[in-house]
Design brief:
One of its GO terms (cellular component) is cytoplasm. It holds the Pfam family Aldedh. Keywords: NAD, Oxidoreductase. GO terms for molecular function: aldehyde dehydrogenase (NAD+) activity. The chain contains 15 helices and 20 strands. Strands 10-13-14-9-8-15-16 form a 7-stranded mixed sheet, sandwiched between helices. It has a 6-stranded mixed sheet with strand order 5-4-3-6-7-18, with helices on both faces. It has a 3-stranded antiparallel sheet with strand order 1-2-20. The protein is of the alpha/beta class and about 475 residues long. Helix 3 crosses helix 4. It folds into 2 domains: about 230 residues, Aldehyde Dehydrogenase, Chain A, domain 1 (3-Layer(aba) Sandwich); about 190 residues, Aldehyde Dehydrogenase, Chain A, domain 2, CATH 3.40.309.10.
Length: about 475
């Protein structure tokens, strides 16, 4: 079952409709923005069962995992934004410089216009709609391009959004590479892309031709570090959770593991215990354990098993596209499993003795989207957070930094640019316009070319 491409004419018509709608000022009203978000909230609530079913069909996600990572996180985000958007949308008065005595200055958030949101297949509801929340709150319209790989979810999104919205403020355009090409060739006012680094480069190149601002939420190899002071059983449980959620197909999943040599064997035992607790002794037979998105990705991840020694797991079921949570020791740092983002349940394990080894290894490579450190040593925490640049992460946990609307989420370097969630979403989709209102009650005559003592006064004010 495949998603049909959308014609260039249809794409152009959809964008023109939204541009006309935006130009007429319909999205400027805060009350209209709130009404749109409330409609989006009700749509998600009313179609919870449909969403759960679509994700079960596409990724074999369990009901609990779908609610926690796709539905609940969106509902909480909408509630948070509705509560705070009046404050965020207000013009902010700023200080006046000495050279501007008598004037008033403001920073005024205004929407960009028509936005394009390109979402990936791994969290196809959350990562399609979370940026939409910020775009709408800031007063923009949005066109969503969902992934063609999650067919059932893409079709569901198109159906339920078209039933609630007429396309002027929010519209889904389905298709594959050809449709994405059509979209990237259009005069959008902002592009928000979530996906792989190679495709992110294509998106940025296309946007640069029209000088369209972009947010890129990418990925990379996110390290996880466990030192000798950590609570090993708890660390193993939380790391296993972060790694096996969605069968490892999470952009912020821990990608490789640094274990202090004194706790390596204990950790492996505890990790195995955690997996058994989650999914039983045979995860491949557990209906709650997710599957790999398609055969191409399954074969790619399976090939990593040849890159070293299997420590735990390693069993495969190609018929159902399932793969056991697997710990392995890579042959060396040059093998593919240590060079490419894994995006699956294979987990390379590296042993270390001195923390400087870890810092050097991570900083010599592209900046990761996430970093996770398990320690009870504040000096270790300070050394890692103070010396390694990364998008975001957790101390003594995994994944959970993405759940709170109070923290911005985004990458740095090759792992992305820009951030969103909570107020950061509003800021991302807003241009902050500078406005200075000058007094007419008096005039600083010294600023003009014929001003008396002009040079002396300017030097005093600007020194």
């Amino acid at each position: 079952m495949n998603i049909a491409e959308t014609s260039l004419e249809t794409v152009k018509h959809a964008i023109q409709n939204q541009k006309s709608f935006f130009k007429n000022g319909h999205t400027r009203s805060i009350s209209n923005r709130k009404e749109t978000l409330e409609t989006l909230y009700r749509m998600i609530k009313d179609h919870e069962e449909d969403i759960i079913h679509a994700l079960q069909m596409d990724l074999n996600k369990s009901e609990m995992e779908t609610y926690a990572t796709e539905i609940g996180i969106l509902l909480e985000e909408i509630r948070f934004v509705l509560k705070h958007m009046d404050e965020w949308a207000e013009p902010k008065k700023v200080k006046v410089a000495k050279t501007h005595i008598g004037s008033k200055s403001y920073s005024v958030p205004e929407p960009y216009g028509v936005t394009l949101i390109i979402s990936p297949w791994n969290y196809p509801i959350q990562l399609a709609l979370a940026p939409v929340i910020g775009a709408i709150a800031a007063g923009n319209t949005a066109i969503i391009k969902p992934s063609e790989l999650t067919v059932h979810t893409s079709r569901l999104l198109e159906r339920i959004i078209s039933a609630r919205f007429d396309g002027h403020v929010l519209k889904v355009i389905e298709g594959g590479v050809e449709t994405t090409g059509h979209l990237l060739d259009q005069p959008f006012d902002y592009i928000f892309f979530t996906g792989s680094v190679p495709v992110g480069k294509v998106v940025m190149e296309a946007a640069s031709k029209r000088l369209i601002p972009v947010t890129l939420e990418l990925g990379g190899k996110s390290p996880c570090i466990v030192d000798e002071t950590a609570d090993i059983a708890l660390a193993a449980k939380r790391i296993a959770f972060g790694k096996v959620t969605n069968a490892g197909q999470t952009c912020i999943a821990p990608d490789y593991l640094f274990l202090h040599k004194t706790i390596k064997e204990q950790f492996i035992t505890e990790f195995k215990n955690a997996v058994v607790t989650f999914y039983g002794p045979e995860p491949l037979k557990n209906d709650k354990y997710g599957r790999i998105i398609n055969e191409r990705h399954f074969d790619r991840i399976a090939s990593y098993l040849d890159d070293g020694e299997i420590l735990l797991g390693g069993k495969l079921d190609r018929t159902f596209l399932k793969m056991e949570p697997t710990l392995m020791t890579p042959r060396d740092h040059s093998v593919p499993v240590m060079q490419e983002e894994i995006f699956g349940p294979v987990f390379p394990v590296l042993e270390y003795e001195n923390l400087e080894e870890v810092i050097d290894y991570v900083t010599e490579r592209p900046k990761p989207l996430a970093l996770y450190l398990f320690t009870n040593n504040e000096a270790t925490e300070a050394a890692i957070t103070g010396n390694i640049s990364y998008g975001g992460g957790c101390i003594n946990d995994t994944l959970m930094h993405i759940v709170t609307p109070y923290l911005p989420f985004g990458g740095v370097g090759e792992s992305g640019m820009g951030s969103y969630h909570g107020e950061s979403s509003f800021s991302t989709f807003s241009h902050y316009k500078s406005v200075m209102k000058q007094t007419n009650k008096f005039d600083m005559s010294f600023r003009y070319p014929n001003g008396k003592f002009g040079m002396q006064l300017i030097k005093k004010l600007l020194k």
